[in-house]
Write a structure and sequence with these properties.
- The chain crosses the membrane at residues 41-74, 95-116, 122-139.
- This protein has five helices and no strands.
- It has 158 residues and is mainly alpha-helical.
Amino acid sequence: MANDSGGMTPDEARAALDDVAHDGAALAARVVTPWWYHPTLGLIVGVFVVAQVLPGAWSIAAVALGIIAIPVLTTTYARRYGVAISKPAGPRGRRLMLTALVVLVACMLSGLTIRLVGLESGWALIPVIVAFAATVILGRRFDEALRRELSATSIEPA
């Protein structure tokens, strides 16, 4: 029952906070990425990296393929599991996402350097493998952090 000022009673406020905590835990339980998601994303990231080494139109085609593949992957995941995550839920997730982005940029720059210096294109396998591995490893760690951050009860009654 609400108090005279139109607000919640302390018991109602506690019950509402309990509901929020329960909803966060329920959402965290639903955010379970299938085994194939991060390796598939790693392959897409690898395409972006190898595109830096490819000549002319092949480079553009590889980037276009990657741009098409990312929404296909994320939409497939969202439709199948009913959850779409577009940003981190807390500081650890933000750090992991930023780390993955830095690794991807470094790998793409490595691929571009290989092309500009005139090294054999086989050298591109190194940044491709690094980008793939980082995507899979950091992606799984991001998922763990996301689940923890979603289920954490950051709202505490006074």
